[in-house]
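Quick check before the chapter quiz. The format below is the same one you will see on the exam, so make sure you can read both the input and the output lines.
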Amino acid sequence: MYMIPFVLLYVVGYAFLKKRDAYGDFVRGAGEGIHTAFAILPTLVGLMTAVGILRASGFLKWLSDILGRLFAGIGFPVQLVPLAVVRLFSASAATGFLLDIFKEFGPDSKIGIIASLMLSCTETVFYTMSVYFMAAKVTKTRYTLAGALLSVFAGIWEELESIWTAFSTPEMTTLWPPGLPPAFSLEIFYSFKDHSWQFQTVVTIS
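Here is the expected output.
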């Protein structure tokens, strides 16, 4: 609650100590930001138009059917393949897919929880690269795309692993910790049926 006022006071105080015109710097930065926004506007329009065309043409559904067969072996829900693909390009379109999933399956369902976590641990890779590299006038991206895609896949994998662990039993599920000394352990359970927490202390006497 106090973080934003603290940051504002810190910036103004630091500018005062350095004898800088904080307001003048703010106005100049805001002007540069407006120019940057206008410079990247064509890229944003192109990305959103491309995503809209992909959705309307049925290409995403066709791609989802193909990728769904490939990912079905690792337990990845076929219904979330379009969300995973669109998330790489547009956050707003991915949010639209997420709302559709909530309406169909419910936000507290297994599909809904996986979709929510997926949007939390992934990034709009192509959107971010195009916007920020264009703003910084970077032409050689080197290993950025490969590293970003690897991080997205790692995030999705860890998210799926967490969901597999959480839904391993229909009633109560141990979420923490993965391992403590065998003599003493504290187990925290969460029930997906009645949405309640339970704590249990286990003492082993050998």
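If your answer matched, good. Helices lie at 3-17, 22-57, 59-71, 81-87, 91-105, 110-120, 125-135, 144-166.
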